[in-house]
Design brief:
There is one protein chain. With 81 residues, the chain is mainly beta. It has one domain (2-66). It is built from 1 helix and 8 strands, in the order ββββββαββ. Strands 6-5-4-3-7 form a 5-stranded antiparallel β-sheet. A 3-stranded antiparallel β-sheet has the order 2-1-8, with no helix packed on it.
Length: 81
């Protein structure tokens, strides 16, 4: 887990996912629940925090990682040291 901030909000990031085609990025902020849903910061056409269901995006996942030490933060955000 790593903390990411935009200067106003701080989020705990557990995992990062990018999907193919539209290359939207998902910064997962909590563990997946029993329905495979979790809140994520979604960086797509614009950024929003919302509930994402893994079952819907899983067929389109291009890359997925939880080793966040090598990951750049979302645009407009920075890692909290």
């Amino acid at each position: 887990m790593r903390k990411m901030t935009d200067g106003i909000t701080t989020l705990n990031i557990l995992e990062w996912i990018i999907v193919e085609g539209i290359f939207w990025e998902y910064y997962v902020t909590e563990k997946w629940d029993e329905n495979n849903c979790a809140y994520c910061l979604v960086d797509g056409d614009f950024q929003e925090l919302g509930l994402v269901c893994l079952d819907e995006i899983e067929p389109h996942i291009l890359s997925r990682m939880d080793d966040l030490e090598v990951l750049q933060p979302a645009p407009g955000w920075k890692w909290v040291q």
